[in-house]
Amino acid sequence: MTRRTFRIGTRGSSLALRQTGMVLADLQAAHPDASFETVTITTSGDQSTAALASIGGRGVFIIEIERALLAGDIDIAVHSLKDLPADDTPGLVIAATPPREDVRDVLVSRSGARLADLPSGASLGTGSPRRAVQLIALRPDLAIKDIRGNVDTRLRKVADGEYDAVALAAAGLKRLGLFDHATEVFETAQLLPAVGQGALAIQVRADDAGAIGLARALDDHATHTAVIAERAFERRLGGGCHAAIAGYATVGHGPSLDRAPVLLRGLVGQAASAHPEEPRSSPQAGGGASRWADPDPPRILRGEMEGIAAEADMLGVRLAEFLIAQGAEELLEVTT
Questions:
Q1: Which position among 75, 83, 102, 164 bears the catalytic label?
Q2: Is the overall model pTM greater than 0.90, yes or no?
């Protein structure tokens, strides 16, 4: 009988390849007799330099990979979990979520300054409405501007003076060995992370028992439980690609895995409306045009709830409904 070779699909960015290499090494360690092959796939998000919201949101980084998975061209896909929409694609499942990396956001500034020390009007790049609304709340006098590109590209744009600073995920910098570029690490109380931030998703076809069995050896219960709660929170809110939604769950120790305590914190923000203004000529205001140029600060709703691991999905729904009762849907309607 011919031994099956499991084909692992990934984006071609340095971070995606690094993450896939980590997963591949763990799969090989868990299944030394299995055979694997890596397949690099170019996605729509990789081909475009436009703002994410204008080309379909974060799902543009996974659609071609999911198509290849459904077509049988690959057997396993490795994603940054925060790239996945909250609703699972029919026919596909997340078979495993390995242990999570650092969930926090960081600042990388050209001068080495922390957020509080950046001069008024300094340009800070982010493509994330979630980061933008929270950064505006902390420093409403900064010019929050759009930025696209992989981690290396964003760091280069800061070094070249296109932006005074950029906000990034700590996980990506750590996986690439670039964490020493961070000039400040934001605690989650300052910047609540994106749903799934720092976690990887190993996605397979729902009817592929062989791939599911392989992947499950890498599943981390605490990470899996946390992202179930976070994704249920986002799913119930129904925010689109423009939405400023954050969700972060932590899982403690309980008498059993199902009874482990879970604390879920969530945030919904109303990003200020975009203005097609030209970048200011000041050297402190480089980079792309500002997407968040309204004089009034964005509204932000926050909440938290506790539950147990066995009810992680319902915990996410309950927290979303709590924020909906506070007016979250109105904020999301304005944002989207």
A1: 83
A2: no
